[in-house]
Amino acid sequence: MAENCLYSNFIDDSTYLVDCSSTHESHHCYDSIDTIRCHMSFSLLRCEDCSYSTRLVDCIGCEYCLECANLQNKKYHYRNKEYSQEVWEKIYAQYQYDDLTWKLFLETQPCRNLYIITSENSLGDAISYSKNTFSSFETKDAENVKYTDRSRILKDCMDIR
Question: Which residues contact 115 (CB under 8 A, 6 or more apart)?
């Protein structure tokens, strides 16, 4: 169930989201795609358990991070470099978004081919907490499924969207 969300789709168990897609169990986020359990964050892409962060790609368990990619369990990072809390707060206070430098930074970072989390014997993309899934996309908590898209909590199913 989603509450108090605007201009978002494929969201569940979330509140206060704006312009989000495929976002689950998240709260107070804006412009986020394919996120799980994130809150108080802006512009996340394929992130999990991140909070108080801005512009993250493929990050897990990050807090107070700004313009980072491929980090796990980090705090007070800017462009994948660690700073003390005081220095990071100064950087954040003076931060102004520049689309070109952000894109140039992302070009230097490795890009994940498939996004499969805690899933056994699975093939597709954006699969999480599943087992024996084949040709499935944006599927969560599934077992013994084939040809699914944007689905959740399935068992012994085929051709589900």
Answer: 34, 46, 58, 125, 126, 127
Question: Would you give the DSSP letter of residue 93?
Answer: H
- Report the distance separating Cα 54 and Cα 3, nearest Å: 22
CA proximity to 112, closest of 22, 61, 47: 47
pTM assigned to the model? 0.83
Q: Give the C-alpha distances (Å, rounded to integers) separating 59 from 31, 65, 112.
A: 15, 10, 11
User: pLDDT (tens digit, 9 = 90+) per residue, 56-102?
Assistant: 999 999 999 999 999 999 999 999 999 999 999 999 999 999 999 99
Q: Please give the C-alpha separations between residue 149 and each of 26, 134, 154, in angstroms, as whole numbers.
A: 21, 11, 11
